[in-house]
Design brief:
This is Transcription termination factor MTERF15, mitochondrial-like. The chain is mainly α. Helix content is 61%, strand content 0%.
Length: 417
């Protein structure tokens, strides 16, 4: 009995036991039949082998994962890898991975696409990035599919270097429909921003690919924010910094907006749109749960977590690894109380290695040496710029502690002083 897969692949053909040979010929031409299955013989032999064909297809024949038993398949696979490496500039490992997912019936289309991209100013690195992320581009019609999109985006990114850089970094723009997605969104954005420079933000255009109907969702979601009384500056900030959040399903967006409002966020402040972003997307939701777990492990209550989120919603978007390292340094190395950190969640967004550890080490050393009794407000230690910090905590004590600057620069540990 034929497998469902065989039935699907042969659906255009009326298969009859009276004409099995014709079916076998078609299968051989489509590379669905291996010579080990099809043996020359009588019509009955063909019919007998027909059942074996179903098992063969289910075990790998004709699917993109090819068998090593066929010399032709081996050659095809190695040739594709070679082409992706030598012509497209992909690393061998990536080329080998993609070779199992693409099939070259001929090199006419891939060669035409590569020549077209080079003519448009794409460098070898740009092409490698494009093909490595979206190999299907090699089979697009350059004149009908790629050229109209490149011409459109050249009106946004006038510089050719900027154009090729942004398109290679955002391959989905060459895969999205110009008529159904890109142009409608452009006109919608233009009605909002006019000739504002924010129209050129790659981040805005990156969000196109992740929304089924970006224009409809964008218009509906912005209407919800305006209906609530959110300031235009905040709406534009959300659109510029987190455009994907404004293009999600409009029902989901409305639900999250009122959820954030009911949590006590003031819709007239910028923290409102930050809180919105922190609640959108599967990645953000998963990160939210992980952050809550880390905070709870350091003794934060649910109220402390909620208050910290209210002060700085970005504290719920930090990676679990960074957050754990940050809390370990502040609490175990500097000796701070965990609840004290909860009052200043903004400091958790800074770089641990470039700001928190250097400044924290200086403060901790000064305390050990008896120059300061206890820490001043964390805000005055970690928030101000470097010039202020040096003038306040390093320069005044350099004569008494000559190694202080080395500690600040990470050249020496506090216990080496």
């Amino acid at each position: 009995m034929l497998s469902a897969y065989l039935f699907y692949r042969l659906s255009p053909i009326k298969i009859s036991a009276k004409i099995p040979t014709a079916c076998f010929i078609l299968l051989q031409k489509g590379h669905l039949l291996s010579s080990s299955i099809f043996a020359r013989g009588s019509r009955n032999d063909c019919c007998a082998n027909f059942c074996s064909l179903a098992e063969a297809i289910d075990s790998g024949y004709g699917v993109k994962s090819r068998t090593a038993n066929s010399a032709l398949d081996e050659y095809s696979h190695s040739y594709i890898v070679s082409y992706l490496v030598n012509s497209c500039g992909l690393p061998a490992e990536r080329a080998n991975f993609l070779s199992k997912r693409v099939t070259f019936k001929s090199l006419e289309k891939p060669n035409a696409v590569l020549a077209f991209l080079r003519d448009q100013g794409f460098s070898k690195a740009h092409i490698a990035k494009l093909v490595g992320a979206a190999p299907q581009i090699l089979f697009y019609n350059p004149e009908k599919i790629l050229l109209p999109k490149i011409e459109f985006f050249s009106s946004i990114w006038v510089s050719r270097s900027e154009l090729t850089k942004n398109l290679s970094a955002n391959h989905h723009l060459l895969r999205s429909s110009l008529k159904n997605k890109i142009l409608p969104l452009y006109h919608c954005l233009k009605s909002m921003y006019g000739t504002d420079d924010r129209l050129t933000s790659p981040r805005i255009w990156r969000a196109v690919y992740f929304s089924k109907d970006p224009t409809k969702n964008l218009a509906s979601n912005i209407a919800v924010l305006r209906e609530l009384g959110v300031r235009e500056s905040c709406i534009r900030s959300l659109m510029t910094r987190h455009p994907a959040a404004v293009m999600v399903n409009d029902n989901r967006f409305r639900e999250v907006v009122y959820e954030v409002k009911n949590m006590g966020f003031d819709h007239l402040k910028s923290t409102f749109v930050q809180a919105l972003y922190a609640r959108f997307g599967m990645r953000n939701r998963l990160n939210w749960e992980r952050c809550c777990e880390v905070y709870r492990s350091w003794g934060w209550s649910e109220d402390l977590v909620r208050n910290a989120y209210g002060k700085d919603p970005n504290c719920m978007l930090i990676s679990e690894q960074k957050l754990s390292r940050m809390m370990d340094f502040l609490v175990n190395k500097m000796g701070l109380n965990s609840q004290t950190v909860a009052r200043y969640p903004v400091i958790l967004n800074f770089s641990l290695d470039k700001r928190i550890i250097p400044r924290g080490s200086v403060i901790h050393l000064l305390r050990l040496k008896g120059f300061i009794r206890w820490y001043t407000r964390l805000y005055s230690i970690f928030i101000p710029g470097e010039k202020y910090f040096l003038s306040k905590f390093v320069i005044p004590y350099e004569k008494q502690v000559p190694q202080l600057r080395d500690v600040y620069q990470g050249k020496m540990g506090i216990f080496d002083v």
